[in-house]
Amino acid sequence: MVSNESAPAPASRRTGSGPFHRLSAAIGRQAMPIRIVLGLGIAAVGVVFLLVSMSVQTVALVAGIGILLIGIALLLTSGDTAGEEQDGGHAASVVGRVLGGLLALLGAGMALWPAAGAPLLSALIGIALVGFAVATAARAVRPGADQRTTALIAAAATLAVAAITVFWPVLTLVVFRLGVGAWFVFVGLQLIVRAFVRRRSGRPSTSRRPWQRWLRTIGATVSLVLAVAVAAGSGSLLGGTPLPVPDAFYTPPAEVPSKPGTLIRSEPLTVGVPDGAKAWRILYTTTHPDGSPAISSGTILAPADPGPDPRPLLTVAHGTVGVVPGCAPSLSDAPFADGAGTAMADMVTEHGWIAVTSDYIGLGTTGPHPYLVGDAEARNVWDASRAALGFPGLKVSTDTVIWGHSQGGQGSLWTGQIAGSYAPEFTVKGVAAFAPASDLYGLAEAIKTETAGKTVSAYIAATWDRVFPDLEVSSHLTPGSAGPVQRISGLCFNGKDGLAAILRGSQVPNQVFPDALMDGPFGDTLKEQEPTGPFPAPVLVAQGLADPLVKPALQHAWVQARCAAGVPIDYRTYPGLGHVELVGPDSPLTPQLEKWTLDRWAGAPATPDCAHLPE
């Protein structure tokens, strides 16, 4: 007799009989030891992160292993709770397994190819964090999930940390490894704890005491607030400050004089002018690196009462301030603070000199700015001095002493070097260069992996692509450098933007210029920017021995080479002084520079010391 009652469904129909379901069942029976083993492994990776000093590649390798283990944990434990699918959590289990598989693949990629490049590796960490946050949120919204609000807050905090990795890719791999290590330890311990608090039925316990629930919620909320604050602060810090916008003064007239060094217009400066002096910004004609007509701006600083007689001329080449129009010194709140600003103010207010400084093309006016292109900078500087000769109300001598710091140090040497051919109407009495970028190729090689070097390289990459289009610099940058180069090029190197520019440089993951580019025409062009002389007057080179940017060893080698070529150099070194401190108001160079300049004007004998250079 056949019964009308339906027979119970076979087990294969209730739970499935395929290999995947049998594997899931086997994993479910071993859920506790699997969680403990994976948790211990992930926590161990975190401990390695916290305690072991590692290179970027090693960080990538260890991070890959940790993310691989987290992916495996998600892959194997999603849906391992008995009855989860009957409770409607099948979709969440599928999401967990998919994300777990994705994390496992990403982690394996990082572990197997740690040298694939820091940009990719830091991006993978960000992707992994996003994946973990999504998985956490998916588990939180499934039916029967414990403390959903807390889990969702934790997921949001993880997304904020992922945003931080975008702002700080190198710190993510090197410095932030401490935070990543702590995160691995937390995830590992969480897996272990969950293994022990599960009920015999396989469901996580929902009977935690109220204070435990509140403690977890408060902890997740604090984490979210801190992560969001750091992410928002990072964006603000690295974004720099709004740059001044050049006004109509910097716009050339419809008809521009063809003769270089012609004064187009001027207007008084009232901000940042030293006591006992008066100043103007000027607009004048000059030439582009290719010799075509151009417009540049600059400044003139004169004694408050210059008198009727011609005043000695101080021709100044300023240091690196940036490469976009808003970075022009004449637009700054402190237009005369660059380089040896204290000494320049003393020369004007105490000794009656007139100082003229070119902004260079592309700073204030339209570009491109010929950053560290020696001959072009020198022509900008000479044309500013020519404009000063025609400045109404001032009488300026054609005898001059040339100064320059850093980029301007290279510029001052080049200004002296081309004086006879480009500006024969001037008589150069002396050339002073403070921490000059004298050997640009050697400098680029020496600091290519350092923070300041990457920032300077970014400025070169952003400008030389337009100054020397045949080099096609932008298409040959190292992977991951193009974006940072673009962002750094919009930041000034002075004032409030200086920190943002340096921090951006610290987050360029690789050297900007690959070695292959340095070995080709680009490297040859770098070498062509070295000022080798001869110089028409005594030369002073000052170098701080604690300079992290212009390496003292490189400067020493350049001076030795000039001395060997018969070019006399007065070389002075300053122990303990860095790149900026060398020209600071308290630097011993300041009074020495003033005396040296006055001696040159008075025709005192030069003091070269090629025979007594330090070894």
Automatic annotation (TrEMBL):
Transmembrane segments: 32-52, 58-79, 119-138, 150-168, 174-197, 218-238
Record-linked Pfam families: LIP (PF03583)
The keyword Membrane belongs to this UniProt entry's keyword annotation: yes
Top-level taxonomic group: Bacteria
Record's keyword terms, sorted: Membrane, Transmembrane, Transmembrane helix
InterPro entries the record matches: AB_hydrolase_fold, Lipase_secreted
Protein name: Lipase family protein
Source organism of this protein record: Microbacterium capsulatum
